[in-house]
Amino acid sequence: MRQVKLTGREASVVRAIGFTESMLGAEIQDFVRMESEDVTDTLNSLMAAGFVESIPYSEQIQLAEMPVTAFELNPAYTHELKRALIRT
User: Fold this and answer.
1) Tens of pLDDT, residues 30-63
2) What is the Cα–Cα distance from 79 to 67, expressed in whole angstroms?
């Protein structure tokens, strides 16, 4: 089992999404107060690592689609992500 390490932006997005329900990209952007390009890039990196999933499923999200797409944490990484947030 690898130890999950998150950047500051990644940790902010993971905190915004939370561990219970999915969240729309626009809501994530409002929560983290980042530019939409930065939020999209961060979500794409988290999706590439397998930590975040989009609804509907997509391997990568485009800038125009981000605000209306829902995102949730991958349940397989819940414990590792919680530990990573404690460390940041």
Assistant:
1) 999 999 999 999 999 999 999 999 999 999 999 9
2) 27
Strands (E), 1-88: 23-24, 52-55, 70-73
Check residue 70 and give left, alpha or beta (phi > 0: left; psi -120 to 50: alpha).
beta
Domain 8-87: which topology? Arc Repressor Mutant, subunit A (1.10.10)
Q: What is the pLDDT of residue 1?
A: 56
The pTM for the full model equals: 0.93
Q: What is the DSSP letter of 34?
A: -
In whole angstroms, what is the distance from residue 5 CA to residue 45 CA?
12
Q: Indicate the domain borders of the chain.
A: 8-87
Instruction: Take residue 65 and report the two structure tokens written for it.
Output: 């689609």
